Amino acid sequence: MASALFSIVKKIIRKGSLKLTLASGETHMIGDGSGETVAVRLADQQAEDAIARDPTLKLGEMYMEGRFILEQGDIYEFLSLVKQNTTNEIFDLRMAALLIGRIAWQQIKSRSPINRNKYNVAHHYDLSAKLFDLFLDEDWQYSCAYFVPPGISLDEAQVAKKRHITAKLLVEPGQRVLEIGSGWGGMGLYLAEANPGLDFTGITLSEEQLKVSRDRAAKRGLSDRVRFELQDYRYLTGKKFDRIVSVGMFEHVGIGDYGKFFKKVSELLDDNGVMVLHSIARPKPSFATNAFIEKYIFPGGYIPSVGETTPPLEKAGLLVKDVEILPMHYAHTLRHWRNRFVARKAEAVALYDEKFFRMWEFYLAGSEMGFRWDELFIMQIQISKNQFAVPDNRNYIAEREAKLREFEATRAPLEKVAF
């Protein structure tokens, strides 16, 4: 009987060179023979059939389980070969039904009144801190870096990201600043040290991140004006803030809650305030998250398009003052992360196991592939309530970045993150 997987792969791979060894031992060379050969082997018939039925989910699962085996090249090179030959075609009615079912289910879940935010965050961010120490920069920035100028190191690019966002925030000393999704505290510490007297509040749903952030603030003598709280943004009340920043958190809000998110931002932002929203985005709506990412990495997450983001923002009475698209910076960031992670494979396996290592390798490779070949990008949206809250030109960004570089030259070195 003809292999269903072989039939699909033949349709996909037209350019490049793929050596496919089926579970039966039968080997096929597929493609036009150009480029470096990627060689894969299926360990058993069940794995081969599973991938043929549901490649979006089962390819990653079979790779995790060691049943989809790379004999030449790595998982990124395989995914890149596939992506350069296809644009997410659906090959039969069963795949179409799976996709429609996943879209429907994720849309329903995103609008459910049950708040699963803390569970979803804990699934990923409450993993061992030692895991993140394997691949992040010295400040533990777990979001897209800013490689300007090109070719700088990951550490330099993460500082450049904080500098760029801070410049757009137009922060002044003594202001009240809120960060929604404060990570391990690096953005808040940068803002506070760059602006004397600044009063900073960072909120997170990760207990592990909270511990690290508070420890870092204490060690740098900032606990009197830098506070980190275990807090869901939806229930935050009280004082208004002059500035609000959110970096890499909006992807976890869920498409059903965009209206609630921006309504809360409008409630918390001062009438003369400014917000900068930094998020992964896509060129058009997808309606659902990749099945592997949803199940294993970021449950409840969704990558929006710019067009899905701005209507609820405007409905909340907020103004879009500036939009910047950063198209390839996350691909560069993920390449650094994946190379660092793979280089420390033995430590990752010792923390968890081989299956976990392959799961994260697949996640990092697939994410990088998405930015290189699926046209994902970073959007930075500057938001205010009135048209006079920001200058009428963008010259201030470079001017403020120049001053921030002077601050960085005198800033005390970062201590190693405690875990």
From TrEMBL:
Entry keywords, A to Z: Lipid metabolism, Methyltransferase, S-adenosyl-L-methionine, Transferase
Catalytic activity, EC: 2.1.1.-
InterPro entries: CFA/CMAS, CMAS, SAM-dependent_MTases_sf
Gene3D superfamilies attached to this UniProt entry: Vaccinia Virus protein VP39 (3.40.50.150)
Transferase found in the keyword field: yes
Keyword Transferase among UniProt keywords: yes
Signal peptide stretch: none
Pfam families assigned to the protein according to its UniProt record, in alphabetical order: CMAS
GO molecular function: methyltransferase activity
Biological process, per Gene Ontology: methylation
Similarity remark: Belongs to the CFA/CMAS family.
Protein name: Cyclopropane-fatty-acyl-phospholipid synthase family protein
Organism: Rhizobium mayense
